[in-house]
Structure formats: C-alpha cells, structure tokens
Amino acid sequence: MVFSFFKKQDQKMPERPAARPRAPDMLPEAKVPVAPAEDQAKPLPEPLPDLEFTPGKPTKPQPAPAARKPEGKPAAAQQPAAVDSDFSIDDFDSDDFTESSVMGIDVNHDDDPLQACVEQVVVLYANGQDGAARSLLETFVRSYHGREGRRFWLLLFDLLQATGERAAFEKLGADYAEACEMSPPTWSSESPTAKQAAGAVGPRKIFLQGVLTAEGALPVSELAKLIEQKAQVTVDCTKLIGCDDEVAGQLADLLSRARKTRLAVTLIGTDVFIDRLNSRMVAGDIAHEPSWRLLLELLQRHGTQDAFEERAVDYAVTFELSPPSWEPRVAVATPADSAATARPADDAHYLSGELKGCRFDELVAVIEGTEQPILDFSGVRRLDFVSAGQLVNRLAPYKAAGRDIVIRSPNHLVAELMAVVGLNKQARILVPKS
Fold first, then answer.
1. Which helix (H) or strand (E) holds 236?
2. Count of alpha carbons within 13 angstroms of residue 399, beta-carbon side
3. Distance between CA atoms of 348 and 47, rounded to whole angstroms?
C-alpha cells in the first residue's frame, strides 16, 4: 500500500503515536512527537512525492509535511530577491560606459528629494516644456522653505524672465519678499546680450575654422546674431580653410552690412584664406557667384585698391554687371569705446540664444587660442540636454590635460542643468549673485 507524503493525515493511521513508545513522563494526550534532530537533518529519499509503507514494519517518523515546500527546496532558494539584496550600482565598472551625453550624470546614492525636484524642473525646461516646469516650480516654492525654497524661487524668476512674462514676474516679487524676507530680483528690460552690445564689455570673438558648410556653420549664425544686435565683434580666420557657396554668400552679406553701417567687425588672420579663395575664382566661371562677392568684400577690407579693382573687373565680365567701386576705408563705430577706457578688454567667448543640438566645434579654437578660456553664457536663454552632454564631451579632454575653463553667468535654469550632466566637474561655473 502507498500513501501520498503530502496529503493531510487522516483517521487511518491512529497507531502512529504508539509506534515508538515515549518516555514515561510524556503525557498520554501529547501530539505526535518530532523525530530526533539527527534524523531531521538527513535528506529525504527520492522520489519525494510518495513513500512506500509496508504494514507490520516499524517506521521512522518524518518531519511534518507542512514544514516543507512542494518542490522540496529551502524557502530561501525560492526568493531570488533575497539572494541579490547586496547588489548596488557600485558593482558596475565605470570603464564599461562611454563618455556620451547622459553618462556624464552623477548618480546620487543618497536619496535627495530636493535635488530630484530640481532635476525634474531643469530637464523639462531644457526640453522646451515651459508650462510643465513652471507648474512644478509654483508647487515647490510653497512646499520648500528657507534656503531650499529660495533655490526654486530663483529658478521660477529666471523662467518668467526667459519667457517674457513681466506681469507674472513682478507679481511674484511680492510673494518672494514675504516668503524669503529678501528683496526680489528685478526684471531686466534688455537681454544680457543687448547689454553687452551696449558696451558693458569688450568685443566678442568668433572663430571660423576648417571648411565651413551650411550644415556646420554655427559660428556664422552667432556672427549674424551679434551683428543684428550691433555688437562689436572680432572674427578670427587664422584656421579657416574654405567654405561652400552658401556660407560664402552669408558671410559676404554680413560683412557688407556691417561695413555700410560702420559697425565694428574686425577680421584677423585672413591673408591665407584670401589667397586660397582668390586662386579659386576664375573669370568667366559663373558657378560661384557668392564666393566672388565674399572675395571682393575681403579685398575691400584687407586688400590693396589695385587688387580689388582687378578682381572687380573680372566679376563684372563674368556676370555682366557694372563693377563694384572701391570705397575708402573709414573708421567704424565702436559701441564700447567709453566702457573700454574704463574697463580692460574682455577676451571671453560669448554664446547666445537657445542652444539646441550643438556640438560646440568652434570651442576647440577658442580654448586652444586662449590662456584662460572664458565661456560667457549670459546671453543663453536655454541649453538643451543633448547640447549639455556635448559640451561635457568637448571640455573633458582639456580638464584632463589640466586646463582651467570658466563658464560665466548662466541663468539658474542653465546652471542647474550643467550640474545635472556633470559639467561642473569639467569647468568652473560662476553664477551671478541674485
């Protein structure tokens, strides 16, 4: 006869308690005794599901069936989470990861809810979700108090300034004064870049290098913004090899506009580029009209009158137009003349606007050509997450080589994002006092 080991005991085995007489001191009504410890430690025979029982032979009591799992495995073996309970992110080797944009983020092993809230806000803003970022900030300024709360107030003020919401900005000032017992920030009627253009600092530098194409002409776009703002600009062409016709046309138009309005746009290191461009322009070849115009503009600024007039005639013959006339060089307006006499010239490299999907290739020439590189972000309204990661990649080799790079005057939203991606470990970030 075979009995299942896992079925509940029924009334067919009333004789089991009497199979092994116990000591005289055991009470008559005691329950089934437990097997000795040495017997419990022995492994169960296989197969586990059924045991053979022969009537008439004494049996050795087994452990109670309910004390074991159906598979016959220890309880701990069925809980894999308990086995991995000592695992942490420190078990990963950091060398397994690349220095891509998001891998620059520092993992905070301490659970810091304040920092998590800040990161949530700045990432939303970086992604262009201004409404969601503002909603969170309006909640956080009432949830956090003291120094922690002030951090969110400053982020909210900067967001309203960046989005041009002056009425909301000024209304918020009264709430801030009451909550923080401090004077609120003041609304800036002019953008930081406009203030620079008005003469607060010296000329900005733009570096043109390599072969410029329409897909990678960010420095030309920066030059256009500064000329639009009537800023004083120095354009370094020392490492400029060439450009396509589209970029040549843009540069020719920008330089012509600046010259006619007597705006101070200074070109340096143009000799090699002018010679290379001049050798490419062949009379009668109408394929490169924008490059012809750029050549004439550069000769007007940095060539002799004879050289300019010779190429002007070639241009007229090629395109059947009246040749442009030589214009005597005159002094250009310098917006920062008064400030420059009161303050030393600023060699910082200025960035402005919304930086989205930027690779920052132009910073190579900026950093390598300056003993103390300063990147001024006072005119930057927004820095997206991808660009922040690219900036980490761009600056990391210089930091490893011992270069000291300063990032100056980002707004609080941009500065907090820089910290999120670890840029504060690659450069010194100086945020203006509020």
1. strand 233-243
2. 16
3. 81
Domain assignment of residue 335, yes or no:
no
> The domain spanning residue 352 has which CATH number?
3.30.750.24
Peptide bond into 47 cis (omega under 30): yes
Count of domains forming the chain: 4
The pLDDT, as a whole number, for residue 16 is 52
Which CB contacts under 8 angstroms, 24+ apart, belong to 324-332? 324/296, 326/300, 327/259, 327/300, 329/301, 330/262, 331/262, 332/258, 332/259, 332/262, 332/263, 332/264, 332/265
Cβ(356)–Cβ(218) below 8 Å? no
Q: Strand 204-212 vs strand 50-52: parallel, antiparallel, or unpaired?
A: unpaired
Rounded Cα distance between 376 and 202, Å, is 12
Report which listed range, 136-150, 165-179, 386-400, is most confident: 386-400
- Report which DSSP code applies to 427: S
Q: How far is CA 329 from the centre of its chain?
A: 45
* 110 domain-assigned: yes
Residues 378 and 292 reside in one and the same domain:
no
Closest CA to 159 of 432, 413, 433: 413
Structural domain of residue 122, as residue ranges? Answer: 105-180
Which runs of E-coded beta strand occur in 258-309?
265-268
Q: How far apart are CA 255 and CA 274, in angstroms?
A: 14
d(CA 137, CA 134): 5
Average pLDDT value for the chain: 74
- Between 96-100, 319-323, 397-401, the lowest mean confidence (pLDDT) is in 96-100
- The reply to whether 70 and 123 lie within a common domain is no
Measure the CA–CA gap between 407 and 431, rounded to whole angstroms: 9
Q: Please report the DSSP string for 49-77 in residue order.
A: SEEE--TTS-------GGGS-TTS--GGG
Q: In one letter, which amino acid is 406?
A: V
- Dihedral sign from CA coordinates of 119, 418, 150, 185: negative
Instruction: Reply yes or no on whether the pLDDT at 294 is more than 90.
Output: yes
pLDDT at 201 over 80: no
Amino acid at the residue 296? L
For residue 359, the model assigns a pLDDT of: 86
Q: Residue 92 falls within a domain, yes or no?
A: no
Query: What phi, psi does 236 have (nearest 5°)?
Result: -95, 115
Flag whether the pTM goes above 0.85.
no
- pLDDT for the residue 112: 75
